[in-house]
Design a protein that fits this description.
single chain; 210 residues; alpha/beta; 8-stranded mixed β-sheet; 7 helices
């Protein structure tokens, strides 16, 4: 079984290198353990500056696909990753996030090609998020997309809706919950940097108007 790890980046060369190094380490561990899983690493860059391009050149031999071009935002970039991926499962490990390799390897063993499998994430610092504003307690329970392994066949039919510029990931998670079995495994799979768009909403009005 092949797993496609998609990293979306824009002008975050420090985070990009940290994420690529973590994914390369995960791939090396998979090889060392002689597992049956194959690994694919895709970077979708929004035509970043020179520092980011330098990182992409530095790690080019470890990257299966590199795209560096202007896009319509993070969800457009994630959709490009879905279209380019060739694995049975897709994980979005975006720039700044670091995989917890040993735990991911444990979770891979539970994949069956049909159901979504997810774990938990750890934060480098407490996010100032929508949860704090109590717009919806249900959102507190939604998993990090970095900790989710989603079947590619499902994602090809359910891409991120660009009409939701700051909440398309929440839309996808609701669709997943309504369309397939979600297998939760109580392991931390990623160390995340806070600051995602859907974590910085201050009010319901802002959610509706941004």
């Amino acid at each position: 079984m092949k797993i496609s790890f998609v990293t979306v980046n824009y002008n975050n060369h420090i985070g990009l290198e940290k994420t690529i190094e973590g994914l390369v380490g995960l791939n090396n561990l998979l090889r060392l353990k002689k597992t049956e899983f194959k690994f694919e690493l895709i970077v979708i860059d929004g035509h970043s500056g020179g520092a980011d391009k330098k990182i992409l050149r530095k790690y080019a031999e470890h990257l299966d696909i590199i795209v560096s071009e202007e896009d319509l935002g993070v969800y457009d970039a994630m959709n490009k990753g879905i279209e380019l991926a060739t694995g049975e499962y897709i994980n979005f490990m975006n720039s700044g996030d670091v995989p917890i390799s040993n735990n991911i390897i444990k979770v891979l063993k539970s994949l069956d090609g049909f159901n979504c499998v997810y774990g938990t994430g750890e934060w480098t610092s407490k996010p100032k998020s929508i949860m704090v504003n109590s717009i919806s307690s249900f959102w507190c329970k939604m998993p990090n997309h970095q900790a989710m392994l989603i079947p590619r066949h499902w994602h090809l039919e359910n891409k991120y809706n660009l009409n939701y510029p700051i909440a398309a990931d929440l839309d996808i998670k609701l669709k997943l919950n309504n369309s397939m079995k979600l297998n939760f495994i109580d392991l931390s799979l990623v160390i995340c940097e806070p600051g995602g768009m859907s974590q910085t909403i201050k009010s319901f009005h802002e959610l509706r108007t941004r």
